[in-house]
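quick one, two chains, predict together pls
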Amino acid sequence: MNKFSYIGKSVKRKDALLKVEGLSKYADDYVFEDMLYAAAVRSPKPRIKILNISDAKAKKISGYVTLVTHKDIGGVKQWPIVINDYPFLCADETKFEGETIALVVAKTLRAARKAAKLVEIKYKELPFLTDPLKSLEKKSLKIYGSDNIFSKFIIKKGNAKDAMKKADIAVKDEFSTNYQVHGYLETQCAIAVPEPGGLMTVHSSTQCPFYVHDAVAAVLGIGYNKVKIVQAVTGGGFGGKEDVPALVASHAAVCAVKTNRPVKLVYDRKEDFMSMSKRHPSWSSVSYGAKKDGKITSCIIKYVLDGGAYSTLSPIVLWRGAVHAAGPYKIDNILIEAYAVATNKAPSGAFRGFGQPQISFAQESLIDDLSEKLSIDPIDLRLKNIIGPGAKTATGQKIEASCGLKEALLAVRKNSDWNKKIKAKKFSGEKARGIGISAVYYGVGLGAKGKFLDRAGAYVNIFRDASVGINVGNTEMGQGALTVLSQIAAETLNAPYENIRVQEVDTSKVSDSGPTVASRTTLMSGNAIIEAAKPLRNRIFTMAKSMLLKKGAESSAIMNAYQGVFSMGGKKVSFKEVIAECWARRLKMGEQGWHIAPNTTFNDKDGQGDIYSVYSYNANIAEIEIDKETGVIKPIKMSCAYDVGKIVNPVLAEGQAEGGILQGMSWALYENLVYKNGKMLNPNFTDYVLANTNDKPEYDIIFIEKLYERGPYKAKGMGEVPLIGMAGAIANAVKNACGIRVKKIPILPEDVWLGLKNKRKAK
Amino acid sequence: MNKFSYIGKSVKRKDALLKVEGLSKYADDYVFEDMLYAAAVRSPKPRIKILNISDAKAKKISGYVTLVTHKDIGGVKQWPIVINDYPFLCADETKFEGETIALVVAKTLRAARKAAKLVEIKYKELPFLTDPLKSLEKKSLKIYGSDNIFSKFIIKKGNAKDAMKKADIAVKDEFSTNYQVHGYLETQCAIAVPEPGGLMTVHSSTQCPFYVHDAVAAVLGIGYNKVKIVQAVTGGGFGGKEDVPALVASHAAVCAVKTNRPVKLVYDRKEDFMSMSKRHPSWSSVSYGAKKDGKITSCIIKYVLDGGAYSTLSPIVLWRGAVHAAGPYKIDNILIEAYAVATNKAPSGAFRGFGQPQISFAQESLIDDLSEKLSIDPIDLRLKNIIGPGAKTATGQKIEASCGLKEALLAVRKNSDWNKKIKAKKFSGEKARGIGISAVYYGVGLGAKGKFLDRAGAYVNIFRDASVGINVGNTEMGQGALTVLSQIAAETLNAPYENIRVQEVDTSKVSDSGPTVASRTTLMSGNAIIEAAKPLRNRIFTMAKSMLLKKGAESSAIMNAYQGVFSMGGKKVSFKEVIAECWARRLKMGEQGWHIAPNTTFNDKDGQGDIYSVYSYNANIAEIEIDKETGVIKPIKMSCAYDVGKIVNPVLAEGQAEGGILQGMSWALYENLVYKNGKMLNPNFTDYVLANTNDKPEYDIIFIEKLYERGPYKAKGMGEVPLIGMAGAIANAVKNACGIRVKKIPILPEDVWLGLKNKRKAK
């Protein structure tokens, strides 16, 4: 029988009840005996030379314990991440407003924060940069290396310039996007608990416990086997709990070592805004050339990311953006130049989509402009050019069988009644409706630039009572990992779903499994669980069979395993009974699994290679309504089709889709962080507006399950895909609604209003 | 090269510094935020019917929180151990003075203890039993089942009664032994910490975290995967932290669930004395028959253990005692009957030697009496009869090649100058010197009666910085497990010893590895580590070779691996470099190992079978000095030879020997717990005297390393052996010194004094 027990079913979410009841323990809920509190002393200006630090006034605060500076760091001084330019604590120069200079430790949080404000920094202001395009200018001030460039990539295929000249039709434009703040539930928080013998345990709000592990071992200068990171329940990450928690935990750990007491470091929302990573602002110049029949022949892109003061994950974010920049199209001539550059603002970093949404917005906007010039329906133009099985991507990678982009485009076209709506008259009274499309492909996992990290472990431990403990290195952060991984374990072992518990991630239990990013959790931890479960499954199934035979089943009968029951020729035996027998015979009931992503390649010279082991695909149709008087854009309906391979849990997958759509929409329409002269003007959720549930459109979510043979139960990755194409689809819908091509994100009411006004004038 | 890097070397003890500095965290050192304290309300009499429990007065104590009784137990009511007759908390009847009836929970330890004393128990006294021989009488009061017998074993080979009649010489006598208290550093303690979602973590002072796991899951009625037991640093166990911590932890856990707060339950020394397990008092009748030439032909033994109020581990303690009862001799005709019986005293339980020391004392005393009757030197008589490779034990098991008993006897005879001293004139002035021998064999591990538990897991985890985390299920309790297991891991991986850290035992990290008892840790966890390390070793060694070849080593050269360095043909590469390369290639660097003891058999009908997979051997010569006026016995020198296979760490092995000798001596000469009418009269270390370092004799410790092919680096088990034969050797030395055969343990000065007086009278 090929019927799944749990895969493909919307089983109950493992952590639902605790979250609904408010019982989940987030990092700040942890309190330890004798715990102290730390608060950061931050750079008051975008760039200063530190002349002196004094805690003379701070000391007078009751409960004040100590000041921690870079001098208290026992290990390495620079945070090991990609380039290692970020000091754990500034020694003499700061590079952005809000950068941590020192930490005050006190007996209460209130005292720590109060005292931190009283620490006096004597400094000299230094000149600074805020505009990434200025940073790139040859004559500009240099704040990083000799050229302010953190990282640079070139993707080169055929001869794009030549082909562009020869194209029948060419389009070119420039686009820009602003920051996006992650808006996770709880601010950054870590509690470092020193243990005798120089051990350190850290409870961290994090997506990436192993990054925290690396950083804490480094900053303390102790062995990895003396550090243990335990993930606290994490209320959303979106990339914001990717690299930064390592810095926060390192600060807490240095404080804990200095005081030999547990130390909690928790940020308030303002300092979280000011110092934490965000989606990179971007600037891009994009051009496409095509033949009259719509065949795209050339693509030239220059893509610049504003990396902020330190490189952090910019090289990797840039890489993902660059390799996907041309869009999901077969194009023979491609030239992509991509730069991540330094400015004196908070370091940009990981954010759901990881460099793709910015360039997807630009590129999909321009594809629509191309279709207009060609007088070809935007979907038809895409269908003509999209990659499919056997086609080659911008990096020359041949697409595998698991590719449902065409089906996705056809599905959303049909579901949204596109053919009728695209041509409909737009304005009726004050409101105009518009419809827009975007197509997305997404390399699942870390790909060639992260391949050394693209492995995952799992420890599957079947207890004597047949309950099962699963330990993995990837984290639950709201996306449903606990549930999906439990389904995979239950299915593989034929254990009842309720017997499975995925235990909290603890870096001492499984090998470094890389980060929980890049939509890799189901794929990597899922496969690692299957690797661990395989030998267990063999033992269990063999034992079940022998027990059924003993019970009188015919040996020629076929054994069926379904939802924790084994049956054969009318006889039955439960998972619990089988496990009891396995234990009685002392069979090995705990196994470590290890999965490594298939090998990938990337040639730094021309950017060619088989860069990801598999891709997910997605098509989005956004329907919006514009208020002519105010310019306000109201999303009406999002029809989105996803090929992310097998859907393990439909309700959770829909949740991922809905969340991604809303977050993409929020970035496209609402979120607008304002920096002025290196100072952040709206570091709070009053002045920085996020989409909320009231803004949610109608969702029409479609899954195209193109099975992926190497995925766990043929699944690929889901997490980031839904966000990537939203801005492009919305921008195209705005254009469709009112004829205005807005080339910046967010698309604010005033942009539309102004556009309409200018248009009226032009008439 | 066959040179070991670490095996056989006295490398520095891993936990030495922390213990010397006083930084080790014992269970009572743990304090959790919002933690409450529990204190037991105990049975005031040996046996009562509970009529009513009232906390009316207790409630008035400031800080009082609640009273916890059997009604608060959500899971099963009986502690699952062997027979399951022990209620977690009494419902209506208590069976010994000090039994826990209920628990008071309060905000401070002082308040909890004060309030516990104010809880009023209305009761009716019930008749009770204190003498195990009376319990066995047919007409006696029944307090357990229909015959007061917890457990009974028969070992029967040949026709012992017949052979006894036909013997040229026969000896017969009765012996008795008293309790022994474990005298571990810290009293019983557990802290139960409830976690959201019905999870329970317990920090426990224990030898056996998995027993605690079983009990806590049972008493709470929750899945094993919701319970996590973490061992706190444990200052000695000796069996006293074997079963009982499970009861203590279960009480704490029930209190924690009821209050939804962390709860600490820590005993004061008096209640620890009154309620905790101790070495079983015993009574035995032993007879040996022999031919004139000294060949022993028959052995008949009746062996009775006083199990106390509940069975706990008595069946297993009795079994080990029974199967070893005839001593390490080839005897064709054997009849052993063994009983563990109920009395209304604190339950007896596990204690280093586990039922063997009591009967070894009796049996080795009588072997000496036999040698006297035969006029054969006691060592010669033993040499004539001892088992050796190929010989069969009392249970018909053929002895394996790894048997150094003969060598042990010869070694101690030589080292102690036995031949001269045994015949020396005894009294000179007020002091008489005596010398005595004993021979011991010891089945390593749990044997046939515990075989389902005789398996162990290990998780070996090599981090990216080449530090190594080892996780096992057996515990450090002072014996040196952390060090010996680190040596085994370092040797197998060719990792530097200082790179290894054995992490705290946590039941969620490795599969149920059975108890840390029966001298099985080196053997079982050692083998499990090797199992886990084997595939890692293969990867590491293969990688090292390929790196050395790359460096220019000749492929025909032999690679040498020593103390963390790989070398070949003059080229070198370090463990750290090799591990970095393994990680770069994403090799699996974490493995779970699983070791099961070889199969064993035991026939319940005649007690025959291959009951242990291997035996350790030991010979002891005690030299003592008696003060004629006071009867005080002063141990002068102990010459002890051990065959425990390969010695992994000589200094630690000597430590185990010295500790065992002293503890055996202490039981033989000093420790005297007094019960009167079911009431313990001296539950404290003022009135109950233990040997201390001032009492220590000269140690002469010899290791006979008969290698055991299936042991880790050919080691067997060491922990319990040194204690077992001490009482027999000392009793024989007393006899040799002054001619008095003392047939009870402890041998008190007044016993000797009285013997000498009677002897003088008889003259």
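Residues 16-23+455-596 of chain A form a domain with the Aldehyde Oxidoreductase; domain 4 fold (CATH 3.30.365.10).
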